[in-house]
Design brief:
With 313 residues, this protein is of the alpha/beta class. The chain folds into 2 domains: 220 residues, P-loop containing nucleotide triphosphate hydrolases (Rossmann fold, 3-Layer(aba) Sandwich), CATH 3.40.50; 63 residues, Alpha-Beta Plaits. 35% of the residues lie in helices and 31% in strands. The chain contains 11 helices and 14 strands. Strands 6-7-8-3-9-10 form a 6-stranded mixed β-sheet, sandwiched between helices. Strands 2-1-4-5 form a 4-stranded antiparallel β-sheet, covered by helices on one side. A hairpin with a 2-residue loop joins strand 12 and strand 13.
Length: 313
């Protein structure tokens, strides 16, 4: 049973003074998110990530399409009770304290009064706000407000959590703590769907990712598959600054860094490379498959979409 099943969601806005012009924010989107995975929704600013999340939350009505969440129709109130949501730019009343804010959201989310204090204490500890629980939110930094937003999203122990740019405003330590929290949520059996344009976070966290650009899905897959070996190539590293002619004959692309040489060759040539280094009495340090990064895959998809768009004008 998928946690999220998106079936042709589409959004077209009417714009202009007379609202006779249209702007397509999201092309028909078909996407499935499995139970218990961390799923990254990647794209540059303005790609359609927030529009998609707001439609899934019922905050924006789609022009067409539908969705199922937790194996139920997405419009059912029972579904909303099992969802946590952190918007991209959360706004909270300045004069509430962190504890008062969570008590308010706990009531809205239906957390029983007898359990509310315990749950508030737990989530404040998880997001590192225990020491400032009595401080008014107007005195919080942007990063602290982001933590408060994460706390309200998980307060009612939801099965599915939507985070829209959860790393926004956080310092490196805060980002590390949020990544740890997401992994904990996954280990608890929850599904995490988060949008981001910080690719290093997505690569470190996600089981699968989808890439969206200009409102259109450009690619989806497991991170391990998207960052697989590059066209059957390996990197050979050896001690020294000497590049044997026999290595050049293998078509090696060599780069000298300090007292080591790094060479990229076809994986079918690695035995020949080892023999060449042995003949020259050079010390082999490592042979590793050359892998692409999520960033390289992301850029490739965006460049391809721009090229395609250019050829269809």
């Amino acid at each position: 049973m998928p946690a999220i099943e998106i079936l042709g969601l589409e959004k077209i806005y009417k714009v202009g003074f007379w609202r006779k012009q249209t702007r397509r924010a999201l092309h028909p989107l078909h996407l499935t998110v499995e139970n218990g995975e961390i799923f990254g929704f990647l794209g540059p600013n303005g790609a359609g990530k927030t529009t998609t999340l707001k439609m899934l939350m019922g905050l924006v009505f789609p022009t067409a399409g539908t969705a199922r969440i937790l194996d139920r129709d997405w419009t059912e109130p029972e579904v909303k009770a099992q969802i946590g949501f952190l918007p991209e730019q959360p706004y909270f009343y300045d004069y509430l304290t962190a504890h008062e804010l969570l008590d308010y959201y706990g009531q809205l989310s239906g957390v029983p009064a007898k359990d509310r204090k315990r749950r508030i204490d737990e989530v404040l500890a998880r997001v590192g706000l225990t020491d400032v629980r009595g401080v008014q939110l107007r005195k919080f930094s942007k990063g602290m407000l982001q933590r408060a937003g994460i706390a309200q999203a998980i307060l009612h122990d939801p099965k599915l959590v939507f985070f829209d740019e959860p790393m926004s405003g956080l310092d490196p330590l805060g980002r590390r703590e949020v990544r740890d929290l997401m992994e904990q949520l996954k280990h608890e059996g929850k599904t995490v769907f988060f949008s981001t344009h910080i690719l290093s976070d997505a690569e470190a966290l996600c089981d699968r990712v989808a890439i969206i650009h200009k409102g259109e899905l450009r690619g989806v897959g497991a991170v391990a598959d998207l960052t697989s070996s590059v066209q059957g190539k390996v990197e050979v590293v050896w001690q020294g600054t000497q590049v044997p002619a026999s290595m050049k004959a293998l078509g090696a692309e060599c780069h000298i860094t300090g007292d080591t040489v790094r060479a990229v060759i076809a994986d079918t040539q690695q035995d020949a490379a080892i023999d060449a280094l042995r003949r020259e009495r050079l010390r082999l340090i490592a042979i590793t498959p050359l892998r692409t990064s999520l960033e390289a895959y992301f850029v490739e998809k965006l460049q391809h979409s721009q090229t395609t768009a250019g050829t269809t004008v």
